[in-house]
Amino acid sequence: LGFVRTFMVLFFSDFIIRSVIGVIVAFFFIINTLYARKAILPYSSVEVLDLGGKRVSLIIVLAGLFVGFLFSAGAVGARDTVLMYLNQTPFGYTDPVFAKDIGYYVFSLPFYNLIKNLASGIVLLTAFTVLVLYYSKTLMTAYSINTFRGLSLKLPAKALNHLTVLTAAFLLLKAWDYRLRVYELLFSPRGVVFGAGYADINASLLGLRILFFVVIFSSLLLLATIIKRNYKLFIGSIGLWVLSSVLLLGVFPSLVQRFRVDPNELEMEREYIGHNIEMTNKAYGLDNVREERFALDNRLSRESLVENRGIIDNIRIWDHRPKLSVYRELQELRPYYRFNDVDVGRYYIDGEYTQVMISAREMDQRRLPSRTWINEKLIYTHGFGFVMSPVNKVTAEGAPEYIVRDIPPVTSGGIRVDNPAIYYGESTDDYVIANTRVKEFHHVSGDDNVFRHYTGSGGVGLDSLLKKALFSLRFREIKILLSEDIHSESRIMFHRNIQERVRKAAPFLYYDRDPYLVVAEGRLLWIQDAYTVTDGFPYSRPYGNMGNYIRNSVKVVIDAYNGDMDFYVMDEDDPLIRTYRNIYTDLFVSQDEMPEYIRRHIRYPEDLFSIQADIFRTYHMRNPTVFYNREALWDIPTEHYAGRSRKMTPYYVMKSFPGNDELEFILMLPFTPATRNNMIAWMGARSDGEHYGELVLYRFPTDQLVYGPQQIESDIDANDELSQLISLWSQQGSRVIRGNLLVIPIENSLLYIEPLYIEAETVRIPRLRRIIAAFDGRLSVAPNLEQALINLLDSRSEEMIIVSDETIEPAPFADVPEDLRELSARAMRKYEDLMGSQRSGNWARYGELLEDLEGILKRLNTLAEQR
User: Fold this and answer.
1) What does the radius of gyration of the chain's CA atoms come to, in whole angstroms?
2) pLDDT tens across 126-183, in order?
3) What is the pLDDT of residues 276-331, one digit of tens each?
4) Torsion of the alpha carbons at 608, 609, 614 and 615, rounded to the nearest 10
5) Which element (helix H / strand E) includes 232?
6) Residues with Cβ < 8 Å from 691, sequence gap 6 or more?
7) Beta carbons of 667 and 552 less than 8 angstroms apart
8) 687 burial type by CB count under 10 A (0-12 exposed, 13-18 middle, 19+ buried)
9) Which of 355, 482, 364 is nearest to 413 (CA)?
């Protein structure tokens, strides 16, 4: 892939660093134990050992090498810790207590702890080992004379001096430990918030500083005993150290907490709560959230809908889960194809900025009718194409309309697909060999199959016998070596799962759970969001096991045909990614080098936004008093889906912002008060152009009721007419699925949209049958969104409007003559029936419908000419 330096650093740095650790540990252990061996040499030839001096030395050396190996193997994470320390980049701002750059806590402190822990461990192990060696003299003497009476535990001066030096070294390391623990107080979990509190700063900090000097003094007294054999002062200092540890790190902080802090907790902790709020917001990128007031007036009208037609046309009435079921039933087309996920994106369709849903058609080799090695590895090597449909279009039968569908791809709206083959994807978990003497299955065409040879650059060329032999060993398959179908131009592709692939190239990054497919310049590309994280940000609240700092600093673009990867740096100001760029100099490229045809498809990642929203529901409270009392705690609202209540997840919408009439693709989520169901605010992340990555928060008026999602869900549950309708549909082997409830801000109003699907129990193809729309306390249900909105706005005095089954024609926003509108709707229904007959192979019905459609179109054309 061209990442030679990155591979060399990943491969050799880990080996070199662990080797250095092992050599240093082994050297220290061997030198000390060889020095101590002289104490047992006079007794090494006794019957119990029957060893000579050289054999003892050899055993010691081998033991030292083994100890070095154990320490190096146990140094988990040493590579990243050392490399980041040596290449660190300052953060540019300091912690609020010790005024040290944040980089000290992220890069330096973990390195110092690594060295301290390794050194302390080897000093203790070595001291124990040499102590055993020194006492072996006495034990061997007693054994040789067959008596243990009068056995003395007194050691000679040389042994005492040796153990004294080792003990003093351990004490000095303990002093260093106290020094490092001073800075680790900023990560204390004990207080009212994460980070150092009043008791930590005013009691524990003092105790650690005192103990630092106590241990230094003890180590100096111990070294002095080498000259003057008086251990009383040292023993006294050790006793003082133990007593001081108990009092200064245990009793004293507890007393301060109980009698000073607890009775006046808010006053004592106010400053430290402020530190936690400030640093947490910085660590999660929430310090620059632009907050505005949402002046809710609910004056939405037909004219407003016309003026905001772009927003209305992009309201997502298809939920990704029913959509995935529909795609699988209607567009997989062959048993060995599989749609794994449905992603949301935006494209210019016939010149209009349109939100779409897209899913890749990948090869699932487990579903092949004949699972032979040749079929799985040489013939059925790749998926083919994708499906794309608008988020708000539905046929008369309740199925999605398609922009891209079928095999080979039938496209519309200006979407171009030059090469629909998918060799690298979300479920391509096994290796394949392309461009062999056996042609690869490409796609079906009517009753025939189309076969082709691979012409790309993906994989590794099998151009030598050695490579074939090595890959045979690698994959434990002798056929790779023996197959006559594999020649010098053949290429073996492995690590084809894109999430596995990016982790192989850059294992130090964290990755989003949902890579998404984009179509750009006729190519199929995957975009995988990557994050830099650390748990070393002072005072910042940890989020699960992830850490307490996160940035979406990298977007990885993977070619679905060749597997090439480009790691684009999207946040040049992130110190972590700047440090990684110092280490892996050939891996990352600047965002300025990202082609515009890719940039227009990047989106704010859902995983990051979910984390930020969860943190922000507490940390929007910037006042320490309000934060302490939890006066304005927010929550993420719940919704109904498929009969269950669950937390809402972020969703993409189209919106225009004040001062800019152009539509933008944003990710948003509403908030409710923690103990109430009304909506208090909504948060959005922008994805387009120069505004990419900006977070906005709109707060609703506190003196006005703003319906929350759960309140709308309750209104839907409580409505008798809608309940009867759902009960009617739920009979005769069908079930009703209530989809996502979406809150859509338009001008100074809020729309609530929820789709209703009907799914048969025998063939699970969800059909979109109704749209529930809510506005200003009223509900409307109709077969399509436009009809629901028009009836909702025209029925301000009524609580509930349900459009009957017969009223299925859309009510347009523009004035279109009734007869043209009726004929247009009939033509669309005939067309959908016609396509359904084609897919099912009912050609008799197909011919009848084609004649009907022709008649309707002629009538439509005649009326149009008359006008």
Assistant:
1) 35
2) 999 988 888 776 555 555 545 445 555 567 778 888 888 999 999 999 999 999 999 9
3) 999 999 999 999 999 999 988 888 888 888 888 899 999 999 988 899 999 999 99
4) 70
5) helix 232-246
6) 664
7) no
8) buried
9) 355
Longest dimension (CA), the chain: 128
Of 521, 518, 785, 783, the C-alpha closest to 665 is 518
- The mean pLDDT of 405-409, rounded to a whole number, is 92
Shortest CA distance to 568 belongs to which of 547, 587, 590?
590
Whether the Cβ atoms of residue 785 and residue 316 lie closer than 8 Å to each other = no
Helix ranges (H only) for 284-374 are: 302-307, 309-312, 320-331, 373-374
* Residue type for position 861: N
Token pair listed for 104: 């000290």
Q: pTM value?
A: 0.86
Q: Are strands 695-699 and 290-293 parallel, antiparallel or unpaired?
A: parallel
Q: Is the pLDDT of residue 38 over 80?
A: no
Angle, alpha carbons 829-835-836 (nearest 5°): 90
Using a 10 angstrom Cβ sphere, with 0-12 exposed, 13-18 middle and 19 or more buried, the burial of residue 513 is exposed
Beta bridge partners of 557: 527, 566
Give 326-372 pLDDT, tens digit per residue.
999 999 989 999 999 999 999 999 999 999 999 999 999 999 989 99
Q: Around Cβ 119, how many Cβ atoms within 10 Å?
A: 18
Rounded (5°) CA angle 847-849-852: 115
Q: At what angle do helices 265-283 and 606-619 cross, to 10 degrees?
A: 160
- Across 119-234, the runs of DSSP E, i.e. the strands, are none
The gap between the terminal CA atoms of the chain, to the nearest Å, is: 62
Task: Output the CA–CA distances (angstroms, integers) from residue 357 to 406, 596, 607, in the order listed.
Answer: 15, 21, 19
Distance (Å, whole) CA 185 – CA 191: 11
Q: Do 403 and 349 meet the contact criterion of CB atoms below 8 Å apart? A: yes
| Alpha-carbon gap, residue 492 to 457, rounded angstroms | 10
Looking from the CA of 866 toward its CB, the CA atoms found within 13 Å total 9
Beta-carbon count within 10 A of 734 CB: 14
User: What are the angstrom distances between the C-alpha of 386 and each of 181, 523, 587, 597, 816?
Assistant: 55, 12, 30, 19, 35
How far is 73 from 96, CA to CA, in rounded Å?
A: 37
Other beta carbons less than 10 A from residue 852's beta carbon: 16
608 neighbors 257 (Cβ within 8 angstroms): no
Question: 383-384 and 421-422 as β-strands: parallel, antiparallel, unpaired?
Answer: antiparallel
Q: Reduced to 3 states, what is the DSSP secondary structure of residue 515?
A: coil
612-617, long-range: CB within 8 Å, 24+ apart, which pairs?
612/284, 612/285, 612/286, 612/695, 613/650, 613/669, 613/671, 613/683, 614/543, 615/280, 615/284, 615/286, 615/541, 615/543, 616/284, 616/286, 616/289, 616/683, 616/697, 617/671
Task: Give the per-residue pLDDT at 212.
Answer: 95
